[in-house]
Write a structure and sequence with these properties.
By secondary structure, the protein is an alpha+beta fold. It has 19 helices and 13 strands. The strands form 4 sheets. Strands 1, 2, 3, 4 and 6 form a 5-stranded antiparallel beta sheet that branches. The chain has a 4-stranded mixed beta sheet with strand order 5-10-9-7. Helix 3 runs parallel beside helix 5, helix 12 crosses helix 13 and helix 13 runs antiparallel to helix 14.
Length: 550
Amino acid sequence: MKTFDLLSHAGRAKDILGVLAKHGFADLIGHLDLPAGWQRLLPQPAVVLTTHERLRLAAEELGPAFVKLGQFLSMRPDVLPQPLILELRKLQSSVSPLPFEKMKPVLVATLGGEPGEVFSAFDETPLASASLAQVYAARLRDGDRPVAVKIQKPDIRRIMEIDLDFAAWLAEQLHQRSDTLRPFNLPAVVAEARQGMLAELDFRNEARNQQYFNIVNPHSDQVFAPTVYARYSGEHVLVMDRIEGENVAAVALDESLRRAIAGRGALSLVRQVLIDGFFHADPHAGNVLVTPDGRLCFLDWGLVGHLTRRLRFALAEFWEAAVTQDAERIVQIAARLAPPNARVDLHVMEKDVTIALREELNFTVGRQELGRAMVKLLNIFGRHGISLSQDYTLMAKAVLSIEEVGRSLDPGFDLRVHTKPVLRELYLGQASPRAVGRRLRDMLRDTLGGLRELPAELHRLVRRIEHDDFTINFQHRGLGKMEDALQSAANRLTIGVIIGSLIIGSSMIITTGISPHLFGYPALGIIGYLISALLGLYVIWNIIRHNGHR
């Protein structure tokens, strides 16, 4: 990533800094290395709001890059406080649609011809307009199928990159100049978000995600994603089935059907997370439709999470321990997943986990916020130096979203009910003869491979010994203070011997009465006494200066 040049983008930089100052972040701007006179040009805040609300409003005013950045940061409960996470999740960008004349060149470049050659009908009024793209209704000539055409806004990547470069520069400035923010390592967080945001601009990733979900999804009669027409899609255009349906939060259905739909969505997401290890990371109400036949359609697959088998089983243990309020078990699992160099006070962390579970999963008073509990736990782990996989934070956000969707359909929604059958399937799959046989086969292959390499390794070791090319290095640690103490004691002992010798020699000279004399006594004897006294005073002063420890 190239270094951001503040002066070459002075206009945009002043706009961004002006918005930050307007929303009350002049103290934060004071930490930056800005050109002389810029501070005086920035406006003063007019509205008194909480810091988290002002951050959200500033991001919305700054445009798509900062809205997306805020949305990505809302998936990092391990480095940001929970109140800020919940506020960032409210981020919305109000965007006026661009005229189709400006969008058409992007579509033509992908199709390789005019839209009329591919579509028998194309409505130039967009169905939806977002910060990155606009969606249009159309019909394919091939089969007269109704499709939705998602077209990326022209030049949006360049705009995003400029703003993200500024965000990276701002994060680096704050990291270097603010002791309070330094532990959060903002440059690394922004760099990670940048990578994900730019990847989301490639619609081919979204197409692959939708196609993969439809392949591995075993309940297509209940939950599905729109079919993608890869022949007409590309990096900047996505053509897929147009789904007729209503927003899940606004659909008008009878109570039993609403409860059934909430259960299907929850069961699908939990299965995506724990069984497939591939899940929709942003299943909020705007991304979930209810079709006329009662099926759920997940839209917008630009952001997905991936979990390895090891992480999925650790997550299953997390969920079970959280539901049973077993804080000690949660801490043990987190410590097992922690980096090797992490230094964690497990007792303090266990206390924090216990409090979080009582606040969010207190079943005795009907508090059943598993998603919020997961977000809080990840924040606790981050504060204690345990930074888990980013996909865990995506999972926590997905669970939080699906719980909100579930409760909008069914006020009595309980995610635990839909988690139990998936956990049972996960553990039965792990204990099945095929899974056990696979683990035994892997263990036997690794063991035999090690045994096969052992003779060659022993041969290399013997050859090195024969050629005197074998050394063993020992490193003593913690002996520095002992060496210093021994050196200091030896020095003082030497000085003590010298002082004693001077005193004895001077006394012998005094008794001889030899000339010259000083104060009636031999001068050499008097000088010897003075030197002995000075050395003795030096030793005493040295002992006092070092508090008697040396």
